[in-house]
């Protein structure tokens, strides 16, 4: 990732928790809320214990609260409650942020693997789920990017993973590598806000 974007990338990188995105500081990442919600719904469907199901329900409830605040900030109809400012958004989201971290911490050692992985992500990468709260110009999902320039790449990745196996996957990676070499990937740096400190204390 650093070879592609450079060591001093000045924007915010949105991804579906792509491991290589962690090469950059947490304040330079935004993990897609839609992908995370899908992961939680899948884990809930496969959950074998009451504890795992409870984790998924609570995490999904926190996601809904965050998205409701975001829509209020953007004044998107129809949303319960009036519009809020950025400072109000930050203040209200702070309580959810602490609950998000605490929930992950409670379930990080659970026996069900997918739940444990999701909980670990909530603990280790709390800031990366919530960059959109603090940074102007950052969305909580990468849906717009996938619907636009990345849609064919996303479909190609799924095609390679599920239909044609190794040969198609090799071809797909070669195309992406060639595109990167030709500088076909366009990124718009987002002005940085001052670094923030997280307080996960009760």
Task: Report, as a whole number of angstroms, the end-to-end distance.
Answer: 36 Å
**Overall 3D form:** globular
Strand order, sheet with most strands: 1-2
Find the count of extended strands (DSSP E, 2+ residues): 2
Main sheet specs: 2 strands, parallel
| Sheet/helix structural class | mainly alpha
Our estimate of the beta-strand percent is: under 5%
Average of pLDDT? 79
Low-confidence stretches: 184-193
State the helicity in percent bands.
55-70%
**Count of runs of 4 or more consecutive helical residues:** 9
- Rg over alpha carbons: 18 Å
- What number of domains? 2
Order of helices and strands: HEEHHHHHHHH
Describe this structure in words.
With 202 residues, this protein is mainly α. It has 2 domains: 2-142, no CATH class; 150-185. It is 60% helix and 3% strand. The chain is built from 9 helices and 2 strands; from the N terminus they run αββαααααααα. The protein has helices at 2-5, 33-46, 50-74, 86-107, 113-124, 126-129, 131-134, 143-147, 151-181, and strands spanning 13-15, 29-31. A two-stranded parallel sheet has the order 1-2. α2 (33-46) packs antiparallel against α3. The longest helix is centred in the last third of the chain and has 31 residues, at 151-181. It is globular and about 45 Å long. The chain starts with a helix and ends in a 21-residue tail after the last helix. Residues 184-193 have low confidence and may be disordered.
